[in-house]
Amino acid sequence: MSIFEQLTNRDQVFDFLTPVASPVDVRHGPILYMEGVSVSFDGFKAINNLNLTIDDGELRCIIGPNGAGKTTMMDIITGKTRPDTGSVWFGSRHNLLRMNEPDIATLGIGRKFQKPTVFEALTVFENLELAMAADKRILPTLTAIMTAEYRDRIDEILEMIGLQALRDKPAGILSHGQKQWLEIGMLLMQKPRLLLVDEPVAGMTEQEMERTAELLTSLAGKQSVVVVEHDMGFVRSIARKVTVLHQGSVLAEGTMDQVSNDPDVIKVYLGEEA
Ligand SMILES: Nc1ncnc2c1ncn2[C@@H]1O[C@H](COP(=O)(O)OP(=O)(O)OP(=O)(O)O)[C@@H](O)[C@H]1O
Questions:
Q1: Where is the ABC transporter domain (predicted)?
Q2: What does the domain layout of the chain look like in residue ranges?
Q3: For a substitution probing ligand 1, which of 40, 42, 52, 72 has the most ligand atoms within 8 Å of its CB?
């Protein structure tokens, strides 16, 4: 078979398209391991001896009052903020405190910020296409011959995020909720092992919240998902295990029922909602 035939043969799966055996080793432990992590800003301990482990494929919700340290914790995981002390490991092989932000992203940690940042003038499809092109693990020079495989992957993601019917519409016309799903789809294009999602349902309608709950729960198992959210109804609808942060440490951990009945949690946080 000539090289041209090989490259255009749709039945052939090229080596660079098959998922590489994950470099993240979770055979003997969690996908994310944080121990004794602390960071101070001008003498104020935003994170204070934080211990947290996330299992491979787990969906974890993180709650906590304003200023509890949720954002700072995600900044530490993604390499944006360096802690003063502690350890942060991705699987058993990767010491995240020795890596920079782009390398951590490339390793498979995706972060969804609260505000959607899709490219409004581009179509839904083009946004997903662009996200794939941003994957540094794919050699840019090979992109031209991967069009068919790109399309399959994009179609798969479009179905997951429920935007098939809008694939050729500019992202600017999407509702707030649809933009959030598109952005989650853009992260999924890069096949992250761990997805950090910050307040996904802020500003969403009830219906959009239900759809987001379905989307996030459908991701669990395939990747690990950490959701930081203030909306207790939403957390209850998706949560298996909930971690309550307070003053930079874990105050309680367990099912939503366990943490919402915990007297310490009621006192510092849920009490406000009860
Ligand atoms: N770069 C910084 N410089 C100084 N203080 C900071 C900085 N980043 C965070 N803080 C402080 O650290 C504490 C924890 O903030 P963080 O944003 O992590 O909390 P949060 O749980 O995400 O709160 P929210 O729910 O309001 O988003 C807050 O008191 C905040 O003011």
A1: 32-272
A2: 3-272
A3: 72
pTM of the full structure: 0.86
The answer, yes or no, to whether any atom of ligand 1 lies below 6 A from the CB of 72, is: yes
Mutate to test the pocket of ligand 1, among 66, 84, 226, 227 (most ligand atoms within 8 A of CB): 66
Q: Which mean pLDDT values do the consecutive 10-residue runs of the chain (274 residues) have?
A: 46 44 76 98 96 96 94 97 97 94 92 88 93 61 62 92 96 95 94 94 93 94 93 91 96 94 85 50
Spatial CB neighbours of 263, under 8 Å, sequence gap ≥ 6: none
Superfamily (CATH) of domain 3-272? P-loop containing nucleotide triphosphate hydrolases (3.40.50.300)
Q: Is the CB of 64 under 6 A from ligand 1?
A: yes
What residue's CA is closest to ligand 1, atom 8?
A: 72
Ligand 1: residue whose CA is nearest its atom 1: 41
